[in-house]
Amino acid sequence: MMHDWYGGWGPGGWVAMGLLMLAFWAAVAAVIVYVVRSTGRTHDAPAPRPQARPEDEALRILDERFARGDIDAEEYTHRRELLRTR
I need a surface site. Which of 9, 26, 40, 44 has the fewest CB within 10 A? Predict the structure, then answer.
């Protein structure tokens, strides 16, 4: 009984051990890849939008009022010059 193949598994036991070892190392590699990718995502977040300066916001509102027809061209240019000189 010297060729009992270690408890009856036969050559399939060696094949199963080899496949399980490959699966183990593939799982270890997958965990490493996941950790590296998940920690590197902080720079992928969109950059915060810069806050508009009050002067830019005032000019935008002035442009909208002129476009709607609330103010005429003379008043528009006068107010625009006032905003730009401040």
Answer: 44
Q: Which two tokens stand for residue 30?
A: 């997958």
Dihedrals φ, ψ of 49, to 5°? -70, 135
Task: Answer yes or no: are the C-beta atoms of 71 and 79 closer than 8 Å.
Answer: yes
Q: How many CA atoms lie within 13 A of 7 on its CB side?
A: 2
Task: Please list, in sequence order, all residues whose beta carbon lies within 8 angstroms of the beta carbon of residue 6, skipping any fewer than 6 positions away.
Answer: 13
Structure tokens at 44: 């992928």
Nearest CA among 73, 53, 49 for reference residue 62: 73
Residue 1 has what pLDDT? 47
